[in-house]
Amino acid sequence: MTGYQVRETRQTVGGHVYRLRVLSDKQQFADPDGHGARIGISSAQWSLFGQVWPAGRLLAQAMQRFDIAGKRILELGCGIGLPSLVLQKRGADVVASDMHPLAEVFLAYNAALNGLPALHYRQMRWDGPMAALGRFDAIVASDVLYERESAEALSAVVQHHAQARAEVLITDPGRGNSARFSQLMADCGFSVDSKPCPMDDLDRPPHRGRMLHYRRGLDA
């Protein structure tokens, strides 16, 4: 017994249907050995990794169009990992990462469910660099600026793992912390491009969601 229930959902990106195993609802919780609690995942937060969120779908669509040629790409806070699966299908050099103890299991299952090779995955917290992880030409993430402290933590990760010439792409549903993150990125030499965007088909203007694109050492 896993201690939690799952279901299958389907998401269409770039004309391709991705089959995804996700948690059956947001009330699921299973942390029998206390691993999640020890790394700071509360019972209220535990199930959040196991859903496909609007910002994740938006990032997946962006990754369908993203120029992947010659780029090593890192997805932060991948959760179910739809954007990384899209990149994997396109043949990108991608590493998915998350701190949740079950993210790797779900990602591996979903890659197999879609007939894709296993993705490179690293369990990763944002409270310190991982020297062995190296540096990346592009770092992508969705809905990761959910607390004020997230801006500082995320910018530190970018400093540690972005190449001198790099880009960062984040989809944000408008939680209010993107301005602070953009300032920190500017302090690190990144240009900032923030565009309003709908988070789903029912989202009408004015849109709170943002597509945040940062570039350093690259032409805009």
Automatic annotation (TrEMBL):
<keyword id="KW-0808">Transferase</keyword>
<dbReference type="Pfam" id="PF10294">
    <property type="entry name" value="Methyltransf_16"/>
</dbReference>
<keyword id="KW-0489">Methyltransferase</keyword>
<dbReference type="GO" id="GO:0008168">
    <property type="term" value="F:methyltransferase activity"/>
</dbReference>
<dbReference type="GO" id="GO:0032259">
    <property type="term" value="P:methylation"/>
</dbReference>
<dbReference type="InterPro" id="IPR029063">
    <property type="entry name" value="SAM-dependent_MTases_sf"/>
</dbReference>
<dbReference type="InterPro" id="IPR019410">
    <property type="entry name" value="Methyltransf_16"/>
</dbReference>
<protein>
    <submittedName>
        <fullName>Methyltransferase domain-containing protein</fullName>
    </submittedName>
</protein>
